[in-house]
Amino acid sequence: SYELTQPPSVSVSPGQTASITCSGDKLGDKYACWYQQNPGQSPVLVIYQDTKRPSGIPERFSGSNSGNTATLTISGTQAMDEADYYCQAWDSGTVVFGGGTKLTVL
Amino acid sequence: EVQLVESGGGLVQPGGSLRLSCAASGFTFSSYWMQWVRQAPGKGLVWVSRINSDGSSTTYADSVKGRFTISRDNAKNTLYLQMNSLRAEDTAVYYCAREGAVAGSPLDSWGQGTLVTVSS
Fold it and tell me: What does residue A74 show for φ and ψ, rounded to 5 degrees?
């Protein structure tokens, strides 16, 4: 079965750029998307089709996808961005999630 | 405004059954594929099941195949998950989620989740 691998944790200082990676075999041939989940809340879509932002998502969130790696980038990271982030792709008609990355802003 | 409201969670003994519901509003429910996703306490998101817009096609994760059944009632704007032969490892918050306008789109709307606890 298809697998997506994320680092368990990433730390960033306020105002700096955070990058969260998601690796999978030939992931660049698929669309990747990203969800943000705050503690006790439901996931929220922040990036879809590799690079697109849904309405209401701040411009500091961006994405890329090439080769075997998709990347979520948060520019000018704010304290409110501290959350868990999950990548997701489709494989054979089913949804596949990465294991999640806890972003700490300190 | 899109709303998805899950219900039906609770405490159940191993081997027992439970039916989850997800009431949808704010969009044309019958036009969208729907999904169930679960999250065990302190763990990540795990896909459970998917159903097409008219209910004629369903898919399941291997871990629940043969035990769980996804269905929908488009007249009632409601998605269901019938869970049988429950195991401790099924303990999780269960979310219903809507696929985007085109099948294979990301999950653009999520419910608040309902907690299922399987324990004796």
Answer: -120, 110
Report the first-to-last Cα separation within chain A, whole angstroms: 36
- Paired residues of B99 in beta bridges: B107
State the CB neighbour count (10 A cutoff) for residue B114. 21
Give me the residues of B, 92-111, that contact A with CB < 8 A: 95, 100, 104-108, 110-111
- Over the stretch A33-46, which tens digit does the pLDDT of each residue have? 999 999 999 999 99
In terms of CA atoms, which chain B residue is nearest residue A42?
A: B112
- Give the residue from B47, B25, B52 showing the smallest Cα distance to B36: B47
Kindly report the nearest CA distance between residue B51 and chain A, in angstroms: 11
Distance CA A81, CA A92 (A): 32
Mean pLDDT of A19-40: 96
Q: To 10 degrees, the CA torsion angle through A46, A49, A50, A52?
A: -50
